[in-house]
Amino acid sequence: MQPETAERSFRTGRSLFSLLVWLLCAPGIFFHLMFASFAGGALLSGEGLSPFDAESVLVFLLLIITLFAWVALGWMNYRWMEDRTVHWAWPVFGTMIALVALIPTRFVPLLFTAPGVLMAIYLCIWHIRRARRHVSHT
């Protein structure tokens, strides 16, 4: 097998695996976006969530901020498919934000997003190891 063909099949395998993981996480992503939009709408309209209630505002902010965890996973996934690393801050902050969101929910969202969480763990390790190797070789 020629190197060019091997590289193409390598990327295709990663792309198909990524597509499968994201499809399995689609219900969790949908619920996350739905709750964020409902909370935002209720907060802005004054129905259900009061802008003067600190807990309501905190829930809304937490839902919005945790969207960054999905963005971080997407960016790490995209760069993994290209066989390139991301800056160390992406996996670190993406993980911190995801944990901050999961702890108060007693990890219930993992029921809908387990494949994505497992992939995120793998990608965090992959990116940080590759970044460390790159730094030690320069």
Question: What is the share of helical residues?
Answer: over 70%
Gyration radius (Cα, Å) is: 18 Å
Report on the biggest sheet: none
The percent range for strand residues is under 5%
Q: What is the N-to-C order of secondary-structure elements (H for helix, E for strand)?
A: HHHH
Principal-axes shape call: elongated
User: How far apart, in Å, are the first and last alpha carbons?
Assistant: 32 Å
- Count the E strands: 0
| SS summary, helix count | 4
Detail the poorly predicted runs: none
Helix/strand/pairing class, anyone? mainly alpha
Average pLDDT, rounded to a whole number, is 83
Provide the fold topology:
Layout: H1 3-45, H2 54-81, H3 89-102, H4 110-137
Features of the shown structure:
single chain, 138 residues
Question: In summary, what is this structure?
Answer:
The protein is built from four helices and no strands. It is an all-alpha fold. The model has no long low-confidence stretch (mean pLDDT about 85).
Describe the structure.
- There is one protein chain.
- With 138 residues, the chain is mainly α.
- 82% of the residues lie in helices and 0% in strands.
- It contains four helices and no strands.
- Helix 1 runs antiparallel to helix 2 and helix 2 packs antiparallel against helix 3.
- It is elongated.
- The mean pLDDT is 83.
